Amino acid sequence: MKASLSRAVSATAAVLTLFSLPGPVTADFGIYYNIEHFSAYADSKGGFPSQTFRSSDIVAPVLQVNSWDRARADGAPYLFLGAVYGDMRAGPMIFDSRDLSLVYADQRYENTYASSAFVVNGSRYLTFWEGARSRGHANGYCLVFDEEYRLRYNVTGKGLRDGALADMHEAVLTPEGSVIFSTYFNVPFNCSSVGGPEDALLMDSGFQEVDAETNEVLFEWNASSHFDIAESYAPYSEAYGVSEDSGYDFFHINSIEKTTEGNYLISGRHLSVLALIDGRTGKPIWILGGKRNQFKDLSDGSATSFGWQHDARFLEGNQTQITMFDNHGEETGHCGGTVCHSRGLHLEIDAEAMTARVVREYFHPQGINSGAMGGMQTLESGNVIIGWGHNPGFVEYAGDGNPVMDVQRGKIGNHALADMFAYRVSKHPWRGKPTWPPSAAVDAPNRTTLNATVYVSWNGATDVSSWAILSHDDATRINNPQNLIAKSPRLGFETAVFLGANHSRRYVAAAALAADGSVMGSTYVIDMETGQPVMLPSGITSVRPWSLAEAVRPESYETAAVAMGCVVVVFVGAALVLNRCARRLAARRRAAKGLVDRAAYTKLGMED
């Protein structure tokens, strides 16, 4: 019994030692909550403060949170957006909306826009545009990735003039599996009605819908066939595309949405127009706003006076409700003492009575206008989230119009910044299951695990709850659960784990753990002498060396100490109880032996 109790106490002590290590250190740069401090830091970083990591070459934004009411924010767990970082680094990003930590980034592109998530046949896909951008438009490709980040489709324009490809403004994956994207291309055109020559070039814009599986063009449309260039508010000038090799951008399409009936809601920025396009003939079914507006405004002009707008959408299943980001002009900056005009706009239309009214307007808490870009998404909870285009930030609003989350990526000022934080921002469910392994890097001042720090991350994995660090002097034997020396909860995109002074071993590896403690994936083995991976998969499949580990899954190191203290008490108490039971059992055996001996004497006739 003493030996058993000794083994139990030794095992408990070992676990207590494991969880009493110095443990986790936050590797991610903290969120700013002081706008003055953030603005000063942003100024020192060229307007866009960013952070780097040890275990990954990803560049992530440093965020300023001006307000955040977590109880009222929508419960969709992930934020999707695209960003440009200069030096040919751009890509889609996914953030955890619960703590604003980066979850995924792919920054191998020159430019990316229109990053979002879509559902086709019950499966979710990440979709975005990438390519080469020129003034106001671009040529590139619409990429569709599954939740394992495998490229499923690469779609672009077919049969367009000038060899034009898919434009950057839109990349929508429909429930039927087709991709809708905007198109821009030059055509010879008589522009004399707007002050240009008769033999001018026109930068026509439109869209194509292409079957992702077959690359068949299902529908295409161009603006010049259905709208007069004189309807444009953009003057015939270099500022709107006119050059020796580029045409007048009179329409500037920037969003397309297909309805269940097969029609298309489009936004023409330079006409300040929304139009519903017939999916058979291409003709406008109705026109809202602009010089050819067909709707009576029931809100004293506020419903039809939008201008230079982006991201027009019907509310899901309801074509009487339209949302958009109304830039309302081309100026960017603080409104000062004047009325702000840029707004998220929710309209109600009656396509039979031909009326329109404002349901709600959403203005930025800091009083700003944005002259370009921007987007608005209505969430399942009724909240809306707005990306503020040239002003690098996004705001989520409750159904009553009050902000519940106000976040900046850069300093909001009176000028546009070169690298956009996000064209659009949206929230969606997502379960990222990357096929690549987690990554690790080390700081090893003693060239062993002694007082070393391990940095771990897994780009794209959404289900990582914690990290386990294993070590051994033989790289090929590191995957034994008995080699577990430290654990840490996930603390952002990258978690730093300090190993302390209890071990001095040459090799380490890390395992990503799910909430139930199971191993989701593991890193390559790292040689602490060189600080480099030895290109040997660690092969870790479990970090549970004994059954007690199943019973103790502390959420933090503080609770771990309490939990393990309770385990010690249970062991000691059990030992005392078993010891007492053993004594009673021994007494009963002695008494029973006495009865047996007495019976033997009686049988031999030796009883007194």
From TrEMBL:
Coiled coil: none annotated. It comes from the Eukaryota. The keyword Membrane applies. The chain crosses the membrane at residues 560-579. It holds the Pfam family Arylsulfotran_2. Residues 1-27 form the signal peptide. Keywords: Membrane, Signal, Transferase, Transmembrane, Transmembrane helix. GO terms for molecular function: transferase activity. The keyword Transferase applies. SUPFAM superfamilies: Quinoprotein alcohol dehydrogenase-like. InterPro entries: Arylsulfate_ST, ASST-like, Quinoprotein_ADH-like_sf. This is Arylsulfotransferase-like protein.
